[in-house]
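Quick question, first post here. What does this chain look like in 3D?
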Amino acid sequence: MKLSGPSRRLSIFIGETDQYRHVPLYHETVTRAKKAGPAGASVLRGIEGYGAGSRETEPAPEAGDDPAPRRHRRGRSS
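> Answer (accepted):
Ran it through. Tokens below.
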């Protein structure tokens, strides 16, 4: 299928674990986009990046990983 005419790109940034009615939100978004009729939709996984303020973002934790890093302090034994 070849398309002609003006086009636009829509970017939606959501988390991997975000859900809508117990369904991954990225899946629901693509399903609804297909029903609405645009030429296509893609889900891309961003591992790392930075925003407009050039502030680096942390990589997303893998499924099952502890979301908060643990810090170990060295201290005296009692």
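Confidence is low (pLDDT under 50) at residues 69-73.
Residues 10-38 form one domain.
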